[in-house]
Design a protein that fits this description.
Elements: H1 18-29, H2 32-39, E1 44-48, E2 54-57, H3 59-67, H4 78-81, H5 104-112, E3 118-124, E4 133-144, E5 147-156, H6 158-190, H7 193-224, E6 233-236, H8 237-248, E7 258-261, E8 269-272, H9 274-291, E9 297-305, E10 308-315, H10 321-324, H11 342-353, E11 357-363, E12 367-375, H12 381-387
Parallel strand pairs: 7-9
Antiparallel strand pairs: 1-2, 1-5, 3-4, 4-5, 6-8, 9-10, 10-12, 11-12
Helix pairs in contact: 6-7, 8-9, 9-11
Amino acid sequence: MNGIAPATLYAPSERATPEELKRQVHYFASIPLQCEVLDAIPWIVVVLNMHRQIIFANRALNTLAEELGENSPLGKRPGEALHCAHAYETEGGCGTTEFCRTCGAVQAILISQKGHANVQECLISRPAHLDSLDLSVSATPLVIDQEMFTVFAVSDISHEKRRRALERIFFHDVLNIAGGLSGYLELLSMGAGEEHEEYRSILELLTKKLIDEINAQRMLSAAETNELNAVPVALNSRDVIQEQYNLFRYHTVAKNRTLHIDSQAQPCTFVSDPLICGRVLGNMIKNALEASVEGGTVTVGCNHRDEHVEFWVHNATVVPRSIQLHMFQRSFSTKGPNRGLGTYGMKLLTERYLQGKILFTTSPEDGTRFSVLLPMLLTTDQTIAKIR
């Protein structure tokens, strides 16, 4: 490595010199039988040098690179080849950011470099035009002529994780709601006349919650398989906020908490999909209410910023750093293990279908604020047709 190595917050940032990399690549290319065996494996398998750079990639990774219109992955690190959103945040690249401290792939590789095989799961967030990945990764040490390498294999378990998440979260929540409906129906059949109205209101609320839960999962599933179609119409930002306020003001998550619309909320007209926009804002409000302590206040507002409309939700709590590092990743929830897909779904819907951006800030002084920036005009074929 020539010059001073870039700074790193986790794994070493040094890379092999061009001459060293060329020698290592040529060495593995000169072993045709082993290369053919690795090419026959259906999932991604690469060989890494001690700088975590790819010196051999099997057909699965090379095919992926071709599909994305890219050159050979040789010389890159795994996160760079797989388009991890954090891989290019620093000059040091894959493995050198604060986020990499929690990356199962980097951890497995570093363990293998100490002579121990290791298997871990890895969550990779990628740009909006690419699906995020849930991976099972294995790193196995390989010594040839006293030189240490790592055989690194990647298996996509996204569908398995998605199925397990649906079973844990969706079915669990739906069964709980259905149980509540059954219980109140029984009380309704036994209750006196004056109690009927109270039970009827609760039954209506539970029914709406059940339908909302089903629609939320249906929308998320359609979004992940690119089957969701945005239908843009003219919207008023204040009306969007008011609708979500009405939905959550008396929601169970708002019990002993106050939901407030900012008095400075700026109404403006923009063109977007009302259902998707409402789902994103509703998730932001629900998450903020769930994160708030009893007696806390959640404030929702909107602003007109340049060519965008901004929706924001604020609460007084602070998101721990350990959770910040995983925010928006699939199969991770701010509510703890086996919980929801809220922040991931918000990011997916916002970036892929509303052409917007979602971000958050959190600090002990200012609390936590989630913001969604949406274009004033959602440019889709449907939009063009309406304008004409």
